[in-house]
């Protein structure tokens, strides 16, 4: 019997009620990992600033790489360990840079992670933040070439197998947006720009990558939502990124598909779990073309209004992640969900 494989997606920067904050979808991932053989998910689900939870069954896959995987363009090759390269934005002030280097040294000494020597970009990255009319966050990069050149140095000179990127983000955030986020009612203003940065490196170098923003610590606030509290804990969001990348699967392109017998491909995915209003992403559209069971969770509200029915996607709607866990258990067991309902309709004759 093949391994039962689930993909958990909570899109970045769209204000998801669960998974739209600082690693607050981690409990969902932990629960699902207990009832499947392999769980594939992305940094937005697993990153909780200085909070993280290492799970052997969970594959940490950056969003662009996940899209390529879902489209059967790339496969995922599990690894025991990656050598992680650290790429720092030249725009980070010396003291704040030192804080991040201390985190990297701590990860080596305390967690035993394998890191290369670091690289500072040859020009400030110049990140700018924006919000769309829908309320989703996004961003732009002034000097994308500096990121790509830095990544190239880490790959070719330091033999990095994964890239952790830290760029300087603006401290001047919209006060209302920031207050809403800290109170657990708004959209993460940083997430959309973070995705742009990691997508750029993964797309160009086909290597695992994830991003941590560099910001000055916020003033202490007396009331912060537990869902946003992980981002209040210090100078850096880097620890979870280093832990995630340390065992992130490598990407195998379609041309090298037959070079590995242990790689995972999209046709091996049994189920996908997604917020019910955020079904328009590339990965979900790709999985909907296969026999993959798609489970849409209603109570995980987002700023998007893209239900599966509008796209012609066949799904199972559930109210909560607790109910989704039940559907996954029955699916893995080969039991029809209808068999657990109080009434079952009789078979009809097809004419």
What does this 3D model show about the protein?
It is a single chain. With 351 residues, this protein is an alpha/beta fold. It folds into 2 domains: 5-10 and 15-76 and 265-340, 3-Layer(aba) Sandwich (Rossmann fold), CATH 3.40.50; 84-251, Rossmann fold (3-Layer(aba) Sandwich), CATH 3.40.50. The chain contains 10 helices and 14 strands. It has helices at residues 26-33, 43-46, 63-70, 94-110, 144-158, 175-182, 191-205, 238-246, 282-287, 321-333, and strands at 5-8, 38-41, 58-60, 74-77, 84-88, 119-120, 127-131, 137-141, 162-168, 209-214, 250-253, 271-275, 293-297, 316-318. The strands form 4 sheets. The protein has a 6-stranded parallel beta sheet. α9 (282-287) links the parallel β12 and β13 (293-297). α4 (94-110) packs across α8 (238-246) and α5 (144-158) crosses α7. The chain is globular, with a radius of gyration of 20 Å. The mean pLDDT is 90.
């Amino acid at each position: 019997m093949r391994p039962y494989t689930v993909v958990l997606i909570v899109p970045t920067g769209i204000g998801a009620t669960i998974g739209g904050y600082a690693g607050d979808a981690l409990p969902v991932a932990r629960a699902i990992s207990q009832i499947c053989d392999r769980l594939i998910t992305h940094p937005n689900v697993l990153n909780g600033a200085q909070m993280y939870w290492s799970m052997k069954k969970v594959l940490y896959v950056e969003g662009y790489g996940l899209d390529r995987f879902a489209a059967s363009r790339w496969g995922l090759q599990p690894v025991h360990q990656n050598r992680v390269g650290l790429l720092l934005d030249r725009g980070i002030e010396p003291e704040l840079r030192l804080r991040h280097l201390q985190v990297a040294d701590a990860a080596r000494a305390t967690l035993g992670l394998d890191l290369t020597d670091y690289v500072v970009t040859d020009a400030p990255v110049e990140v700018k933040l924006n919000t769309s009319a829908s309320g989703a966050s996004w961003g732009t990069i002034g000097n994308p070439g500096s990121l790509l050149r830095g990544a190239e140095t880490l790959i070719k000179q330091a033999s990095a197998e994964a890239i952790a990127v830290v760029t300087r983000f603006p401290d001047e955030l919209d006060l209302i947006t920031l207050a809403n986020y800290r109170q657990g009612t708004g959209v993460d203003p940083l997430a959309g720009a973070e995705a742009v940065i990691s997508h750029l490196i993964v797309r160009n170098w086909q290597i695992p990558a994830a991003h941590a923003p560099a910001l000055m610590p916020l003033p202490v606030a007396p009331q912060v939502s537990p869902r946003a509290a992980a981002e209040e804990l210090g100078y850096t969001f880097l620890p979870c990124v280093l832990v995630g990348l340390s065992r992130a699967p490598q990407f195998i392109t379609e041309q090298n598909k037959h070079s590995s017998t242990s790689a995972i491909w999209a046709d091996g995915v049994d189920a996908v779990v997604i917020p019910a209003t955020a079904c328009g992403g590339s990965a979900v559209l790709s999985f909907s073309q296969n026999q993959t069971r798609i489970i849409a969770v209603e109570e995980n509200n987002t700023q998007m209004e893209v239900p599966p029915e509008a796209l012609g996607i066949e799904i199972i709607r559930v109210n909560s992640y607790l109910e989704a866990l039940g559907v996954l258990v029955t699916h893995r067991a080969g039991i029809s969900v209808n068999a657990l309902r109080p009434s079952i309709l009789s078979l009809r004759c097809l004419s």
